[in-house]
Design brief:
about 270 residues; mainly alpha; Rhomboid-like fold; about 55% helix; disordered C terminus
Length: about 270
């Protein structure tokens, strides 16, 4: 019986004994590489709709674009007898609560909200799934719209943008972000095993001093924008009511959408 290596030139071995060419140790399992752009499907779908709406507006005339935006915008005055006189008609009394989320003032407004959607929406979709993310997004946007109307009853000016819904996504992430920081694995755990991060009950979460600071800072920053602090264009008012309403809704309602185990049910995380 001959040795297979005996027929090879000195120093040459079989492929089984050669180390992998990618730098991994001999015998180590092959690890799948994460793609550079790994956008969850529902987040990608939402981004596509937002960009498509903005793209469609670019082919419209100025008058047609104004009518299109007003038909989709949230206008509190629709609820006080002006609906028939505004683009969108009576139907927009109901559709405005959803459609306002998908139209933005300009490219900068769209870019900012898209970046925030990627950050918070991407994190949430990995944890709760695409359909739950979409429903959560819409519920938070609706909460932001209702809050805006409550503070601006009868206002004839339009409110547009997904900021209220995205603020709600931020609120949802805050419900379990600090739990991850308290557990072994930290930020890596949020990325590679988001469902293993325990979710505290609402009362326990609200008693966390870090969450209190983040929430208070978010509210103060939005009120500061109302009086001009950080507002680049003084002619574009910040819809702080929608932001705060959406954020608080996301913070308080996320537990109804979350499918991960509660704080005392989660198994031990065994990360690297």
């Amino acid at each position: 019986m001959t040795d297979e290596n005996s027929e090879r030139p000195p120093g040459e071995t079989t492929s089984a004994s050669q180390p992998p060419q990618d730098g991994r140790p001999l015998g180590s399992p092959e690890v799948a590489r994460e793609p550079i752009f790994n956008i969850p499907p529902m987040v990608l779908a939402l981004l596509t709709v937002l960009i498509a709406v903005m793209g469609y507006r670019l082919i419209l005339s100025e008058d047609a674009d104004t009518a299109f935006v007003l038909a989709l915008a949230l206008i509190p005055a629709r609820l006080t007898g002006y609906a028939a006189e505004l683009p969108g008609g009576v139907t927009a009394i109901y559709t405005q609560f959803v459609t306002h989320m998908f139209v933005h003032a300009d490219a900068m407004h769209l870019a900012f909200n898209s970046a925030a959607l990627l950050a918070f929406g991407g994190a949430l979709e990995k944890r709760i799934g695409g359909l739950s993310l979409l429903l959560f997004f819409l519920v938070c946007g609706l909460a932001g719209a209702v809050t805006f109307i409550a503070f601006n009853s009868g206002l004839l000016a339009p409110m547009i943008g997904a900021s209220g819904a995205i603020a709600g996504l931020m609120g949802g992430v805050m419900r379990y972000f600090f739990s991850a920081m308290d557990e072994r694995g930290g930020l890596r755990r949020l990325n590679v095993a988001p469902k293993s991060v325990p979710l505290k009950g609402l009362r326990a979460a609200l008693s966390d001093r870090r969450l209190q600071i983040v929430s208070a800072s978010f509210i103060v920053m939005n009120i500061a924008a109302l009086i001009g602090f950080g507002d680049i264009n003084a002619n574009n008012a910040i819809a702080w009511e929608a932001h705060v309403g959406g954020y608080l809704a996301g913070l308080m309602l996320f537990g109804f959408f979350d499918i991960a185990p509660r704080h005392n049910e989660v198994p031990e995380y065994r990360g690297d």
